[in-house]
Each structure stands twice: as structure tokens, then as C-alpha cells.
């Protein structure tokens, strides 16, 4: 397609204007990409089957296109399935370990921890005993206890409030 950029010095005739308008319209509405070809989803071979022997296969083109979102969902579902299998195996191993727990194994695991706790308690008790002083603070004298209860009740209307101040 060539484009002539030279200015027109004379007006077009009706026939030339009509031809130019048709050219512009057909050029404007012509698709830039070729239309999508639709492929048949089935194939029927109408050739006669031989009376005996093997029938040779008929070549059928496979032009299926998988959309990107469908491929993404397929990959994600494979990943989720593999992850759930991994979690299931982990849970199985943990439960197998818990099923084989015996009293002897629990005691063997906790015995060192109990020994450390006993030693820490003994050391803490010895330090506390060493820090304690012999002096005792004893307070002697009269004790006066005053209890004053002030009851303020302003009950008016639907909402009321009772306040008891204890000192």
C-alpha cells in the first residue's frame, strides 16, 4: 500500500470521491489480524473398511489450545495436592511417634530435667537461707479500727443510683 502525501490541487469529481471513500472504508474496516479458524472437534472417516487385515490409522491434527488460567489452576492444584500429602505424612510420623511412647521412655527423658530442677531448688533454698537475717520486726501497740459506711441514695424516676462508700 502506498500513500500519496502530495496535496491535491483540484477538487475531486463525484466518481473519484466515491471511489476514494470506498477505498478508505474498506481499508478502515479490514481486520488487522486474520480471523480465528475454528477446528472440528470430531473426525469421521467414511472410507470403506477392508474385509480383512489391519486398517491403517488416519492422522488427525491436534490443535487444542489451553488457556493460561486453566494451566495455572492445574499447576496450583498439583502443588496443593503435593503439599497436603506432605502434611499427611508429617502427621502420620508424629502420631506414630506418639503411639510408641512408654512410661520408661517418658521417665528417661524427664529424669535429667527433674534432676536439674531439684538442684536449682536446693541452690535457691540455700541462698535464701543465707540471706535471711535473724532480726524479727514485731510491732506492739494499741490498734484502732474505724469503719464508716455512708449510704447516699438518690432515687428519682426510672434510673436510680445507690452509692455505698466504705472507709
Topology readout:
Layout: H1 14-28, H2 68-99, H3 103-131, E1 149-155, E2 160-166
Antiparallel strand pairs: 1-2
Q: Point out poorly predicted stretches.
A: none
Percent of sequence in beta strands: 5-15%
Amino- and carboxy-terminal Cα gap: 106 Å
Strand count, sense and closure of the main sheet?
A: 2 strands, antiparallel
- Structural shape: elongated
Mean pLDDT: 79
- The whole-angstrom Rg is 49 Å
Treating each run of at least 4 consecutive H or I residues as one helix, how many helices?
3
Q: Structural class, from secondary structure content?
A: mainly alpha
Query: Percentage of helical residues?
Result: 40-55%
Q: Kindly state the number of beta strands.
A: 2
Verbal overview:
The structure is a single chain. By secondary structure, the chain is mainly alpha-helical. It has three helices and two strands. It has helices at residues 14-28, 68-99, 103-131; strands at 149-155, 160-166. Strands 1-2 form a two-stranded antiparallel ribbon. A hairpin with a 4-residue loop joins β1 and β2. The protein is elongated and about 130 Å long. The mean pLDDT is 79.
Amino acid at each position: 500500500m502506498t500513500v500519496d502525501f502530495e496535496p491535491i490541487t483540484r477538487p475531486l469529481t463525484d466518481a473519484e470521491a466515491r471511489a476514494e471513500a470506498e477505498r478508505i472504508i474498506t481499508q478502515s474496516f479490514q481486520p488487522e489480524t486474520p480471523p480465528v479458524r475454528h477446528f472440528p472437534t470430531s473426525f469421521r472417516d467414511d472410507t470403506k473398511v477392508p474385509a480383512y487385515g489391519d486398517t491403517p490409522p488416519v492422522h488427525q491434527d491436534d490443535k487444542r489450545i489451553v488457556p493460561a488460567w486453566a494451566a495455572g489452576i492445574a499447576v496450583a492444584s498439583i502443588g496443593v495436592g503435593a503439599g497436603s500429602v506432605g502434611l499427611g505424612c508429617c502427621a502420620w510420623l508424629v502420631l506414630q511417634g506418639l503411639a510408641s511412647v512408654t512410661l520408661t521412655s517418658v521417665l528417661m527423658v524427664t529424669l535429667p530435667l527433674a534432676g536439674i530442677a531439684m538442684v536449682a531448688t536446693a541452690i535457691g533454698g540455700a541462698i535464701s537461707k543465707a540471706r535471711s537475717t535473724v532480726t524479727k520486726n514485731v510491732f506492739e501497740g494499741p490498734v484502732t479500727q474505724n469503719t464508716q459506711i455512708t449510704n447516699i441514695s438518690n432515687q428519682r424516676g426510672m434510673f436510680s443510683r445507690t452509692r455505698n462508700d466504705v472507709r
